[in-house]
Amino acid sequence: MLMKNLKIALAFFLVFSFKDFLSGDEIQWINSLVFAGIVFVVYLFWDWAKEPYDWDKHKR
Fold this sequence. Notes:
Blueprint: H1 2-23, H2 29-50
């Protein structure tokens, strides 16, 4: 789960950095890193929320 989220965040970082590179302007490293970090946290929370909680865990 963690590696999948890291790969997605890395892909976003590379795409936005490459987009800045192709546009001819400066590469906005901080913006790309912050956006990749936000994507990582959102996808991590999304994967965590998809897994159902075992309510019978404490009854045993």
